[in-house]
Amino acid sequence: MIQIIKATIEHSELIAEIGKQSFLESHGNSASIKDINGFILKTYNKEAISKEFENPKVQYHIIYFNYKVAGFSKIELNTPNKDVIDLNVTKLDRLYLLKEYYGQKLGSKLFNFNIQLSKKHNQKGIWLAVWLENQRAINFYTYKGFNVVGAYNFKISETHSNPNHIMYLKY
């Protein structure tokens, strides 16, 4: 059974835990252990996630598989990007799935849910940044119809950034 729920501030600690694990699984080898651990400590903690709920453009959703948490998504409505010419676009900031749930089509379910949500808010498209070495994610987004429209350096620490594609799907 698959269930997707809208997260609330009460889910902040859960989102932080999933974020830590998912980030390590997908990006853990993208920088030094010191840099990765510093990024995780700063980004995936209850306080940082709770603060994001103050932004009315941000929506988190949690996906459950057989009553167990499998991952989460974070979108930001009406968030422009310099490489996207359309206005009224959504940023898909995070689509995280725990590795043990890969291959269950849960990423597609959560992605499709967010597309429908974005369209419901009269958005013209959705964009994201994806690490150049995350070929699994690039393949997924390409399959879903995204195109590379730009580049972005994702800052892990003061001394390390990862090169990313900016990808966009126009509705």
The first-to-last residue Cα distance is 29 Å
CATH superfamily placement: Gcn5-related N-acetyltransferase (GNAT)
Structural class: alpha+beta
Strand content: 25-35%
Order of helices and strands: EHHHEEEHEHEE
- Whole-angstrom Rg: 15 Å
Query: Which strand order spans the largest sheet, edge to edge or round the barrel?
Result: 1-2-3-4-5-7-6
Runs in which pLDDT lies below 50 for 5 or more consecutive residues are none
Under CATH at level 1, the class stands as Alpha Beta
Describe this structure in words.
The chain is an alpha+beta fold. The chain has a single domain (2-170), classed as Gcn5-related N-acetyltransferase (GNAT) (Aminopeptidase, 3-Layer(aba) Sandwich), CATH 3.40.630.30. The protein is 34% helix and 33% strand. The chain is built from five helices and seven strands; from the N terminus they run βαααβββαβαββ. It has helices at 12-27, 33-43, 46-52, 106-120, 135-143; strands at residues 2-6, 58-65, 68-76, 89-97, 125-131, 147-155, 161-170. A seven-stranded mixed β-sheet has the order 1-2-3-4-5-7-6, sandwiched between helices. A hairpin with a 5-residue loop joins strand 6 (147-155) and strand 7. Helix 1 (12-27) crosses helix 3 (46-52). The chain starts with a strand and ends with a strand. The model has no long low-confidence stretch (mean pLDDT 96).
